[in-house]
């Protein structure tokens, strides 16, 4: 089934065409980083308006890149949450209108499930009985994947998400928005042991798997404020040290959960999964645990619509259909979530 996916949950206006075998035929991501950069973070109202202007041209480009016209499209998938309410509403309203006027089946996709399905773009859906770390700008979730579409959230951040901590420290360092990629580049020249920062494991004390990143963020901001001089060397050391402790905290929880739950595979997804330090350390941990690691190519880690289309292909194949009551839910939970669906023929 050839599916057009749409993603507008935050500051990327994205459309992608994904076909049999989850092969990506066309993929367009229009970043709004230029628009929000000058404010140091995403301005929700501006994001919604930019989605409204860009979404239809982005869809046209994705179809053009795929070399297909509307007649070839067999289904639609759209992110319906979690995310910025107004931004989501633009994508959902457009998807419902297109489904109606083109007579196409539509499914709503949870953005976090979309991140999990990014692994499908490089070879097969999220495997059964796997342990997934979803790390993005807004979420840090450790998830048990019973099977595709059946998830249990084992732990989540109690305060900032990992990406949020990166973005806030990077902003204070004057690295622009989003700061994660800039910290990644900068840290390559730095010493990861140079700046002492705590490695919090919020859930450990209670035997759970929750995370906490606000303490790391505050410690990094304090180290920045206390630096006698801002040299390129110091900035590189701080970037490297911050990435080391964030990765150590994330991987500590993954390792404990893996020993307890004995998954068949580890998954590392979400925008922060593009981070080179986290990828390398997670690969080393997977090897130590003797588990296969599935992590998408960096371009599929950050927000895109191909992952939404892949999740959509799977749900459409199961007969799910969203009705006109499909909404845009800012706080949509992953666990036990099911968009309002009508089984085919019902
Ligand atoms: O999944 P995503 O694209 O959007 C959300 O769903 O939030 O994740 C965006 C987050 C931002 O915090 C960004 O700084 C971070 O992912 N990020 C990175 C890297 N690339 C993106 N963080 C660290 N290193 C990177 N290479
Ligand atoms: Zn995301």
Descriptors:
alpha/beta, 5-stranded mixed sheet, binds 5'-O-[(R)-(carboxyoxy)(hydroxy)phosphoryl]adenosine, Nucleotidyltransferase, domain 5, globular, binds zinc ion, single chain, 11 helices, 346 residues
Describe this protein's structure.
It is built from eleven helices and ten strands. With 346 residues, the chain is of the alpha/beta class. It has two domains: 3-116 and 301-343, ATPase, nucleotide binding domain (Nucleotidyltransferase, domain 5), CATH 3.30.420.40; 129-296, ATPase, nucleotide binding domain (Nucleotidyltransferase, domain 5, 2-Layer Sandwich), CATH 3.30.420. The strands form two sheets. It has a five-stranded mixed sheet, sandwiched between helices. The longest helix is centred in the last third of the chain and has 30 residues, at 232-261. The protein is globular. The two termini are 21 Å apart. The model has no long low-confidence stretch (mean pLDDT 95). It binds 5'-O-[(R)-(carboxyoxy)(hydroxy)phosphoryl]adenosine and zinc ion (ZN). 5'-O-[(R)-(carboxyoxy)(hydroxy)phosphoryl]adenosine binds at residues 10, 136-138, 163, 166-167, 178-181, 184, 270-272, 274-275, 302-303.
Helices and strands, with pairings:
Elements: E1 3-7, E2 12-19, E3 23-31, H1 33-37, H2 44-66, E4 75-81, H3 85-102, E5 106-110, H4 111-117, E6 130-135, E7 140-147, E8 150-156, H5 162-172, H6 180-187, H7 214-226, H8 232-261, E9 265-269, H9 276-289, E10 293-294, H10 298-301, H11 306-317
Parallel strand pairs: 1-4, 4-5, 6-9, 9-10
Antiparallel strand pairs: 1-2, 2-3, 6-7, 7-8
Residues 111, 115, 136, 270-271, 303 line the site of zinc ion.
């Amino acid at each position: 089934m050839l599916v057009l996916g749409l993603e507008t949950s935050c500051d990327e206006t994205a459309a992608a065409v994904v076909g049999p075998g989850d092969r990506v035929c066309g993929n367009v991501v229009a970043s709004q980083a230029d628009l929000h950069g000058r404010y140091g973070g995403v301005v929700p109202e501006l994001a919604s308006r930019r989605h409204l202007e860009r979404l239809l041209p982005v869809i046209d480009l994705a179809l053009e890149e795929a070399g297909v016209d509307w007649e070839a499209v067999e289904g639609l998938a759209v992110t319906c949450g979690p995310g910025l309410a107004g931004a989501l509403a633009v994508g959902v309203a457009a998807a419902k209108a297109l489904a109606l006027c083109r007579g196409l089946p539509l499914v709503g996709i949870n953005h976090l499930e979309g991140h999990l399905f990014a692994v499908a773009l490089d070879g097969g859906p999220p495997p059964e009985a796997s342990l997934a770390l979803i790390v993005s700008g807004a979420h840090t979730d450790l998830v048990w994947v019973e099977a595709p579409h059946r998830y249990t959230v084992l732990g989540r951040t109690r305060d900032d998400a990992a990406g949020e901590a990166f973005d806030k420290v990077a902003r204070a360092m004057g690295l622009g928005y989003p700061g994660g990629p800039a910290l990644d580049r900068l840290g390559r020249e730095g010493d990861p042991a140079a700046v002492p920062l705590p490695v919090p494991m919020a859930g450990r004390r209670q035997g759970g798997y929750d995370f906490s990143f606000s303490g790391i963020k505050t410690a990094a901001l304090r180290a920045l404020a206390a630096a006698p001089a801002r040299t390129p060397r110091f900035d590189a050391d701080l970037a490297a040290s911050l990435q080391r402790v964030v990765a150590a905290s994330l991987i500590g929880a993954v390792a404990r959960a893996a020993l307890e739950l004995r998954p068949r595979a580890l998954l590392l997804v979400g925008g922060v999964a593009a981070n080179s330090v986290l990828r390398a350390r997670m690969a080393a941990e997977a090897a130590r645990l003797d588990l296969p690691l599935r992590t998408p190519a960096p371009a599929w880690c950050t927000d895109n619509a191909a992952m939404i289309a892949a999740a959509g292909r799977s749900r459409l194949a199961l007969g799910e259909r969203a009705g006109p009551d499909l909404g845009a839910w800012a706080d949509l939970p992953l666990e036990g979530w099911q968009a309002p669906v009508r089984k085919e023929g019902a």
